[in-house]
Design goal:
735 residues; alpha/beta; seven-stranded parallel beta sheet; six-stranded parallel beta sheet; globular
Length: 735
C-alpha cells in the first residue's frame, strides 16, 4: 500500500530537531501530517481585539492587544539589596478589558524598548492573579507591525489563527511551522469516496487544510471545518462498521428458552407485570440470543428503570437453553448487592440441587476477590461442572483459574468502568464467543452512543416501573444562606421521624493525610482558590452525630473499608437498623434500599452532572417520595451553581447528559472511552454535529457492507491505518 511520503516526513527533518522535540513531547506531533492536522482553536481578526474580560484562569492563552502604558519600577530585594531590582509593568487593552503584564530582572530590557504605548502585539502566557488582578508574568510576545514582508506573509489575510499551544511553544511559532509544511497539504490523499464528497458538496482535503490554516474569509473556515468534520465522523464510523461486520461473522450458539422452563417459572412468580419498555427491550434481546452470531447490545436505562430485571430474564433464558450466564459488576459492594437481589427475586428457583429448590432451579454463585478460600473453591467447582447457571462477580471472574462449563451470555454492568480487554478476556472463556449485554445507567446521548459504543446495538429503557416515586431536588446555598443548611438537617430528622432513612454523600473519605502518596499531591486550582479541601465522610459523620443529627444512628461507608465491614454496614442500613449513612460515591451504582427517602450531597459542585443524577437515583425507590438536597458554597453566578440548578430542575437523565456535554469539553466526555483512537476528534463536536455523525454512520455501513476490505478506497484505508494501528481496531471501543 502506498504511504504518503510527504505527509509521513518526520518533523525533525523539516523543522530541525529542537522544535520537533518540543512538538513531539508537548503536543504529540511527529510527522508533517500530524502538524497539518493540528488545527487552530480560533481566529483573531486584525482589526478586532480579543476579549481580555473572559480570560480563563490557569490556562495558556494567546491574546492580541494594544499597549496602553509601560512603567519601569525599581525595588530592593535579596538579590538586589540596593534597590537595583527592576520590574516592568505593561498594561494592555483590547476595548473589553485591561490586563497587566510583568517582566523582572534582566528580562525587562527588550520589552522596555519594544512595548511602547500604541504598539500592537500577540501575547502568550499563563493567566494568574496578583493583588486581585489578572496578569501574565513574563509572557512571550510577537509584535504585529504589518510592514515587513515576513510578518505579512506569516499572518496572511485578515484572520490570525490561534493554535492550541504550550508554555514551551507559543501559538505563533506553531503558526510559522505550519506555514513551512503547508505546501505538502497538496499531496494529502483524500479518504472520502468521490461520490460522497461530491454528493455533499464538500471541498477536497488539500483545499480544506489550506483553508483552515490560512483562511482569507470566514466562509473559508466554515468550508474547511465542514469538510474536516466529515472526515473524522466518517473514518471513525467506518472503523466501527468494520468491527460490527467482523463480529457478525463470528459463530455463536443460539440460545432459545425452553417453553416451560426456568424463565416461565420465574415470570409466573413475579408480583408485578413488566413495563412496556421492559417487554420491548426483552424481545430485542431474545431475538438476538436466538441467532447464531454473538449479540452485542448496549442497554441504557434510567436509574431505577428495571435494567437488572431485563438482564436477569436474559440470563434465565440462556440457562434454560443449557448455557451459563455471568454478570460482571465494577465493585464488590455492587456484586454482593446484585447477588442478594437476584437470589431474592428468584426465591426457590435459585436453590438448584438443594432441598426445597424448585424442579427447574439453578444455582446462583458469587465470586469476588475477597472471598474465603473454601467458598471460592466451591464457587469455581460449581462453574466448571455447570452446576451454577448464573455467576455474579467482580473482575475476579476474568482470572485464568476461572473455567466455565458452557458460558453463553456475559452481562457487563456499568460499562464505563470496564475496559474492553476485560470484556474480551471474559468472552474468551466460552467455547464459542458468548452473547454480550452491556448495561449503563448513565444516559448517553444518541450520537455519543454512536461514537463511543458504535460497535454495539442500542436498547433504551426510559419508563420507570410502577410504584416508583418522584424525587424533589433543591440546591442549598450553604454560604449565602446558612439557615437553609440548618433546615436541610431538620428535613433529614423529619424523614427519619417518619420511619425512613437518609444518605449523606461527601467527596472524600478523610483519612488521606496518612497516605504519603497523596500528601505531596498538587492541589487543583479550584482547591487552591477555595482554600478548603472537599468535605470528608469521617469529619462530617462526626460533626453530624455530635450536632444536628445527635441521637440518630449514623454510620459511615467508604471504599477503603474491609469488604466484610462494608457489607455489614450495607446490610444494617438495608435492614433499617441505621438511620443515616454517611458515604462516598461507593453508593453511586446499584445500591437499593427502598426505605431511604432523603439524600444530602455535600460539596455537590465537586461532582459531575451524571454522577449527581446517579446518586440521586438511590432515593425514591419505594412508595414514599424522595428528596435530594444539593449543598454547595459556590456563589450564585458561578458555572458550578448553574450546573446544580440544571440537575435540580429535571429528572430526565438524557436531558442532563446533554447539559453535561455542553458544559464540558468533548474530550472529557469521550474521556475514558477515548482509548488511543478517540482523541482523534479535533473538529467534530458530538452534540452539535449529531446529523453528520448519524449520516456518516449510514454511509459507512453501506460502504462496508459492499466492500468490507475497502479494496476500492485506498485513501480511506490510509486514513484508517493512521487512526488505528491493527490492535487498536481490535479494541476500538475499549474504555
Amino acid at each position: 500500500m502506498d504511504l504518503v511520503p510527504a505527509l509521513e516526513e518526520p518533523l525533525k527533518k523539516v523543522l530541525g530537531p529542537p522544535t520537533a522535540k518540543v512538538m513531539a513531547e508537548h503536543l504529540g506531533l511527529h510527522t508533517v501530517g500530524d502538524l497539518l492536522h493540528h488545527y487552530p482553536r480560533r481566529y483573531e481578526e486584525r482589526g478586532q481585539l480579543t476579549h481580555l474580560a473572559d480570560l480563563p484562569m490557569d490556562e495558556h492563552v494567546t491574546v492580541v492587544a494594544q499597549v496602553a502604558d509601560a512603567r519601569l519600577h525599581t525595588f530592593a530585594s535579596t538579590k538586589a539589596p540596593r534597590g537595583k531590582g527592576q520590574r516592568l509593568e505593561v498594561t494592555i487593552t483590547d476595548g473589553s478589558g485591561r490586563l497587566q503584564l510583568v517582566f523582572f530582572g534582566n528580562g525587562v530590557h527588550k520589552p522596555h524598548k519594544e512595548l511602547l504605548p500604541g504598539t500592537r502585539a500577540m501575547f502568550a502566557g499563563k493567566v494568574s492573579v496578583f493583588n486581585r488582578r489578572l496578569q501574565l508574568a513574563h509572557p512571550a510576545y510577537e509584535l504585529l507591525r504589518g510592514e515587513s514582508d515576513e510578518t505579512v506573509e506569516t499572518w496572511a489575510g485578515a484572520l490570525i489563527p490561534i493554535y492550541p499551544a504550550t508554555a514551551k511553544l507559543e501559538s505563533w511559532k506553531i503558526g510559522k511551522a505550519i506555514q513551512t509544511v503547508l505546501p505538502s497539504a497538496q499531496e494529502a490523499v483524500d479518504p472520502l469516496p468521490d461520490s460522497l464528497r461530491e454528493g455533499r458538496g464538500l471541498v477536497s482535503l488539500p483545499e480544506a487544510l489550506l483553508k483552515i490554516h490560512r483562511p482569507h474569509t470566514k466562509a473559508d473556515i466554515a468550508d474547511a471545518r465542514d469538510r474536516l468534520k466529515w472526515d473524522e465522523a466518517f473514518v471513525l464510523q467506518v472503523a466501527l462498521a468494520r468491527r460490527r461486520h467482523a463480529d457478525a461473522q463470528l459463530p455463536a450458539v443460539a440460545r432459545k428458552p425452553k417453553p416451560d422452563g426456568l424463565l416461565t417459572a420465574f415470570d409466573d412468580r413475579l408480583p408485578f407485570t413488566l413495563t412496556e419498555g421492559q417487554q420491548k427491550v426483552s424481545k430485542e434481546i431474545f431475538d438476538d440470543l436466538a441467532t447464531e452470531h454473538p449479540m452485542h447490545r448496549l442497554l441504557q436505562g434510567e436509574v431505577g428503570s428495571g435494567k437488572t430485571m431485563v438482564a436477569l430474564r436474559a440470563m434465565l433464558a440462556v440457562v434454560d437453553a443449557g448455557g451459563q450466564a455471568a454478570m460482571l459488576a465494577p465493585t464488590e459492594v455492587l456484586a454482593q448487592q446484585h447477588h442478594r437481589s437476584i437470589v431474592e427475586m428468584m426465591g426457590e428457583l435459585a436453590e438448584g440441587g438443594m432441598l426445597g429448590g424448585a424442579d427447574q432451579a439453578t444455582k446462583v454463585v458469587l465470586l469476588t476477590g475477597s472471598m474465603g478460600a473454601a467458598a471460592r473453591r466451591q464457587a469455581l467447582l460449581d462453574l466448571v461442572t455447570g452446576e451454577a447457571g448464573i455467576v455474579i462477580g467482580t473482575h475476579a471472574l476474568i482470572e485464568d483459574k476461572v473455567q466455565f462449563h458452557d458460558l453463553g451470555l456475559v452481562v457487563v454492568d456499568e460499562q464505563h468502568r470496564f475496559g474492553v480487554e476485560q470484556r474480551d478476556a471474559l468472552r474468551g472463556k466460552g467455547k464459542q464467543p458468548p452473547h454480550l449485554l452491556v448495561m449503563t445507567a448513565t444516559p448517553i446521548p444518541r450520537t455519543v452512543a454512536m461514537t463511543v459504543f458504535g460497535d454495539l446495538e442500542t436498547s433504551v429503557l426510559d419508563q420507570l416501573p410502577a410504584g416508583r416515586s418522584p424525587i424533589a431536588s433543591h440546591v442549598v446555598p450553604a454560604a449565602d444562606k446558612p439557615h437553609f443548611l440548618a433546615r436541610a438537617w431538620e428535613r433529614v430528622r423529619e424523614e427519619v421521624g417518619n420511619g425512613h432513612q437518609a444518605y449523606v454523600v461527601c467527596p472524600r473519605i478523610g483519612d488521606e493525610e496518612d497516605d504519603p502518596k497523596k500528601a505531596g499531591k498538587q492541589k487543583s486550582p479550584e482547591d487552591e482558590a477555595e482554600k478548603r479541601p472537599p468535605l470528608a465522610v469521617l469529619d462530617v459523620a462526626d460533626q453530624l452525630s455530635k450536632g444536628p443529627l445527635s441521637g440518630l444512628k449514623v454510620e459511615v461507608l467508604h471504599g477503603r473499608m474491609h469488604p466484610d465491614d462494608k457489607d455489614a454496614v450495607m446490610r444494617r442500613f438495608a435492614a433499617g437498623e441505621t438511620d443515616v449513612l454517611v458515604a462516598t460515591t461507593v453508593i453511586e451504582v446499584g445500591v437499593n434500599v427502598p426505605n431511604a427517602t432523603a439524600m444530602v450531597i455535600m460539596d455537590a459542585d465537586r461532582f459531575g452532572v451524571s454522577q449527581l443524577h446517579q446518586l440521586r437515583g438511590r432515593v425514591g425507590r419505594g412508595s414514599a417520595p424522595g428528596l435530594c438536597l444539593l449543598v454547595t458554597e459556590m456563589p450564585e453566578a458561578s458555572a458550578a451553581r448553574q450546573r446544580l440548578n440544571a440537575v435540580a430542575s429535571t429528572l430526565d437523565g438524557f436531558e442532563l447528559s446533554r447539559i453535561d456535554l455542553e458544559q464540558r469539553r468533548e474530550g472529557d466526555v469521550l474521556g475514558q472511552a477515548q482509548s488511543g483512537a478517540r482523541s482523534s476528534l479535533r473538529v467534530l463536536a458530538v452534540i452539535e454535529d449529531e446529523e453528520i455523525i448519524a449520516e456518516a454512520r449510514e454511509e459507512a455501513a453501506a460502504l462496508v457492507a459492499a466492500d468490507p476490505e475497502l479494496t476500492g478506497f485506498p485513501g480511506l484505508r490510509t486514513a484508517l491505518d493512521a487512526l488505528l494501528d491493527e490492535e487498536r481496531e481490535q479494541y476500538l471501543e475499549k474504555g
